[in-house]
Amino acid sequence: MSETLHVRPDTDEHDRPAVLELDGVTRSFGPETAVDSLSFDVRDGELLTLLGPSGCGKSTTLRLIAGLERPDGGCVRVRGDVVADGETFVRPENRDIGLLFQDFALFPHLSVGENVAYGIADRPDEAVERRVNDLLDLVGLADYADAAPDTLSGGQQQRVALARSLAPEPDVILLDEPFSNLDVSLRREMREEVRRILKETGVTAISVTHDQEEALSISDRVAVMNDGHLEQIGRPETVFEQPTSRFVAEFIGEAGFVSGRFADGTVETPVGDVPGDAIAGLDAEYEGAEVDVLVRPDDLRAVPTDGGNGRVVHRQYTGPAFVYRVQLDSGGLVYCEHNHADQLSLDERVRVDLDIDHRLAWFPTEE
């Protein structure tokens, strides 16, 4: 399936060397396979997020990279050097990999500056002081070197923990659910701040989360995992707009499907005809095929009417908008996003129309 028409133009990302590589990595716990033949790479300076539901294997993958778990099969490489395979296992402290813990794990008996300096204590005093000062300045805490961690806010503590992880200048930094312990009001601010810091330092980073908004907003690429497998990896907008599996389509955002038959260059659906050239990868070889077209809430409009083609069965207020769930007369369930000023009532009859400005994804109709 081809990509959407309006993704960012390719840069030199593909030309950057791979800093981290996983090749066929597998890890089982008794009869349960947590990670199954997982392969991907992370490029120099890239921020990759592993995204998936609880139990999909993303945290186990992070532990395998860090050296906290040993793979049963496959190979892990850092800058081309094998750190784990059937014969080699490099201990975590020798991998040149930093880890930002979910609970920050700051040492309460050390000051902010001493926490940042913890991993570089073997360097000359002047070099340590210079590195600590530079990092505290980078994370906006230059005046807090002597403060105790428990006097800081959650966001400040996270920045100290990030500075400490960056201090030894690791090849890779791992972020385990980095924003889950923050108040909702802080999360967006800290997502932007952490991305800024990572990009300014140029470090290669891997984040783990089950939060779709977080993954889409901070990542250069997103890797969606399910049941120990890699479902899809790509730029956030590509994964969202052109998912390669129904699981990805339904896990990321709200997904509705409208069914129709592709004939004479058009798919006739309950919400209107869709030209074949508005559906990615649907060409003449699929003539006559029954397909399900993926539509997101911003692809549809619901207009009140006495007749129409559906009924409002649920509505969710998000602040800037309402998202309406509409049961189509044809049997399908779709979502429509409207400005908060456009209010529809439950059980109201509506006509759902397409309102698209990009190419849609499709899947063969399920029997």
Explain how this protein is built.
- There is one protein chain.
- Strand 12 and strand 13 form a beta hairpin.
- The strands form four sheets. The chain has a six-stranded mixed sheet with strand order 6-7-8-3-9-10, with helices on both faces.
- The model is unreliable at 1-11 (pLDDT under 50).
- The protein has helices at 58-66, 112-117, 125-138, 154-166, 184-201, 212-218, 236-241, 246-251, and strands spanning 18-29, 32-43, 47-51, 73-78, 81-84, 97-100, 172-176, 204-209, 221-226, 229-234, 256-263, 266-269, 272-275, 290-295, 300-304, 310-317, 321-328, 333-339, 349-354, 362-364.
- The protein is of the alpha+beta class and 367 residues long.
- The two termini are 21 Å apart.
- Helix 4 (154-166) runs parallel beside helix 5.
- It folds into two domains: 18-250, P-loop containing nucleotide triphosphate hydrolases (Rossmann fold); 254-364, OB fold (Dihydrolipoamide Acetyltransferase, E2P), CATH 2.40.50.140.
- 22% of the residues lie in helices and 34% in strands.
- The chain contains eight helices and 20 strands.
Helix count, DSSP H or I runs of 4 or more residues: 8
- Report the portion of residues in β strands: 25-35%
Question: Strand pairing plus helix content: what structural class?
Answer: alpha+beta
- By CATH, the topology of the largest domain is Rossmann fold
Report the principal-axis shape: globular
Order of helices and strands: EEEHEEEHHHEHEHEEHHEEEEEEEEEE
- CATH architecture grouping of the largest domain: 3-Layer(aba) Sandwich
Into how many domains do the coordinates divide?
A: 2
Read across the widest sheet, the strand sequence of neighbours is: 6-7-8-3-9-10
Beta strands, count: 20
